[in-house]
Amino acid sequence: PSAGCKFNPQYPETHAKPHEIQHSESKINIFDLVENSIENAEVLKF
After folding, report:
1. pTM of the predicted model, to two decimals?
2. For 29, left (φ over 0), alpha (ψ -120 to 50), or beta?
3. What is the pLDDT of residue 3?
4. Would you give the DSSP letter of residue 20?
5. What's the CA angle centered on 7, arms 27 and 1, to 5 degrees?
6. Rounded distance between C-alpha atoms, residue 2 and residue 24, angstroms
7. Positions of the region Disordered (predicted)?
8. b/e for 27-41, b at 16 or more Cβ within 10 A?
9. Which residue ranges make up each domain of the chain?
10. The predicted structure's pLDDT at residue 1
C-alpha cells in the first residue's frame, strides 16, 4: 500500500453518489459485525 497502511483501499472511490454508497452499505450487516467483535474481544492486562 502506498500510504503505508494496509487498511486503506488501493483505489478509493472519490466521487461516489449517495445511492451507490447506500447500496454498498446495505450489504453489510453491522449488527453481526459488532456482535462478533464483542464476543471475540480479549482483555489484555499489562
Report:
1. 0.50
2. beta
3. 55
4. H
5. 125
6. 25
7. 1-21
8. eeeeeeeeeeeeeee
9. 18-45
10. 47
